[in-house]
Design brief:
By secondary structure, this protein is an alpha+beta fold. About 40% of the residues lie in helices and about 25% in strands. It has 12 helices and 15 strands. It has helices spanning about 10-25, 25-35, 35-50, 65-90, 105-110, 115-125, 140-145, 190, 230-240, 250-255, 285-295, 300-305; strands spanning about 55-60, 65, 100-105, 130-135, 150, 160-170, 170-175, 195-200, 205-210, 215-220, 225-230, 245-250, 260-265, 270, 275-280. The strands form 5 sheets. It has a 5-stranded mixed sheet. β9 (about 205-210) and β10 form a beta hairpin. α1 crosses α2 (about 25-35), α1 (about 10-25) packs across α3 and α1 crosses α4 (about 65-90). The longest helix is centred in the N-terminal third of the chain and has 24 residues, at about 65-90. The protein is elongated and about 80 Å long.
């Protein structure tokens, strides 16, 4: 078969094909690759012409791999990372981050505390660009083309690698207006009598506290006046006097300092929340990801906060 004249690198064509399969559609692949759907479609056609094989069956509502396409995808998924590792090694780029890094970060944490280490990382490595995506759900790394995610609290299920980068201390707070006509609580039992707010991601129907002196644990049920999955509305509701709340210390440190919120039963604290960078397992880890993890782990000022 006569080889078609290709102006596009064959590896680039293969990378596009792998991205189409993992993204689930040509349009999603185009978005992740930063190009257009016609360009992705043209690259797929060029690859099929070069190989002399049909790789995908497409209809109005579905896209499926042919048997040849499945074999091609399996082998390309092994080949491309090895080729990238070899190329980087030969060119001496093992420790020179470059390219686009797509990161998912928690909405509140990602728009405040993590911006400083992110900025430091980008200043240090000018050949890297970061797509900083803020949401609190666990991403589908392959389908969404995500390199890594920063997760606070419980880790997602199996199939990912987790690198711990710190922990977030939490405190119990309430507005002075909530305590009008009430004695200030000094024990967990007294806290149980207050109206409560809940952060669904970390606690819903029960509060668990640990005493700092001897490690005793206290727990009591709550019926939240308000439940949310975001720190910011939780803080605003606490400021409005709607209920007591367990909140990340960094969110309310200034409110406590200014007297807008009271730090309740300071000898009893919620467990701190672990923070991890998580990413899918791969034999080859690109320098941009390795150095990003190192930058997040080195950001002591984010996690080692002065406690109220």
């Amino acid at each position: 078969m006569k080889e078609p004249a290709l102006s596009v690198d064959r590896l680039a064509l293969m990378q596009t094909f792998v991205r189409i399969v993992e993204a689930g559609s040509l349009s999603a692949a185009a978005t992740q690759l930063g190009t257009t759907q016609p360009t992705v479609s043209r690259r797929l056609k060029m690859l099929e012409q070069f190989l002399g094989l049909r790789l995908l069956r497409r209809s109005t509502h579905a896209m499926t791999l042919t048997e040849d396409g499945r074999r091609c995808y399996e082998q390309a998924s092994e080949l491309l990372p090895r080729w990238q590792a070899m190329e980087d090694g030969l060119r001496g780029r093992e420790d020179e981050p470059q390219g686009l890094l797509r990161v998912v970060a928690p909405h509140a944490f990602g728009q405040s505390q993590l911006v400083v280490p992110l900025t430091d990382y980008l200043r240090r490595w000018p050949q890297v660009s970061v797509e900083w995506l803020l949401h609190d759900r666990n991403p589908d790394f392959i389908a969404e083309g995500i390199d890594c995610a920063i997760r606070v609290g419980e880790l997602p299920g199996d199939g990912v690698v987790a690198s711990r980068i710190g922990q977030v201390p939490r405190v119990v707070v309430a507005a002075p207006s909530l305590l009008e006509g009430r004695p200030r609580p000094t024990t967990p039992e007294a806290l149980a009598t207050l109206p409560w707010l809940a952060m669904q991601t970390f606690y819903r129907n029960e509060v668990v506290l640990q005493e700092g002196g001897d490690g005793r644990v206290a727990r009591f049920p709550i019926r939240p006046r308000l439940s949310t999955d975001s720190l910011y509305p939780l803080r605003e509701a606490a400021l409005a006097g709607l209920g007591a709340a367990m909140v990340s210390a960094w969110v309310v440190a200034e409110d406590i300092a200014q007297g807008r919120l009271l730090h309740l039963v300071p000898d009893w604290r919620p467990a701190p929340l672990p923070v991890h960078v998580v990413y899918p397992y791969a034999r080859y880890q690109p320098a941009k990801l390795r150095h990003f993890i190192a930058a997040m782990r080195a950001a002591d000022q984010v996690f080692k906060l002065p406690m109220p």
